[in-house]
Each structure stands twice: as structure tokens, then as C-alpha cells.
Amino acid sequence: MSVRALRSTFGPNCHWCGLAMDFDEPHGRPESATIEHLIDSTLGGVRSQKRRRLAHAACNHARNEFRMQAERQFQHWIAERQASEKTLNEK
Ligand SMILES: [Zn+2]
Fold this sequence. Notes:
Elements (H helix, E strand, L loop, with lengths): L2 H8 L22 E5 L14 E5 H27 L1 H6 L1
The chain binds zinc ion (ZN).
Organism: Variovorax beijingensis
Protein name: HNH endonuclease
């Protein structure tokens, strides 16, 4: 599904912030429209066309960054939990 097709289906506004996207922006610019793949990892990461939406490149990028930050924080939490296993077992 192309940007053009997604635009005609879902409109010209960003999936995340709801603000208008600039379809004249060169690809890769912050306000340009990018295809956001909404992937439900519990379904094995299969990309469904029904779950493609348009979003600003900036919003798309920010979302990925925050998700990566959250993942790193979770990994850190897991590491701390594993490091404290001995303490937990002594209780
Ligand atoms: Zn946006």
C-alpha cells in the first residue's frame, strides 16, 4: 500500500499527532509522510497492510526512539532483577 493509497484511505493527517503532513516534503524530512508499520509482535511480527498508517517522519522517528529507550530500560531492569536473584532466594 503506497503513501498515496494510505492518504486516500486514512486522510492527510499524522497517525500519531493528528497534524497535517507535508506530502511535498522530500522523503526523509521531519514533516514528510512516512509509512508507519503497526506491528503486533504477539502475532509473530507479520506485517499486515491493514495496520499500515501514515505518520510524520519526526513522529515515526520519535516513537522508535522512545520504544528503544523503553526496551533498554526494561533490559536494565531485568539485569538488576537477575542480579538480585540471590537476595530474593535468601528471603
Ligand atoms: Zn505527527
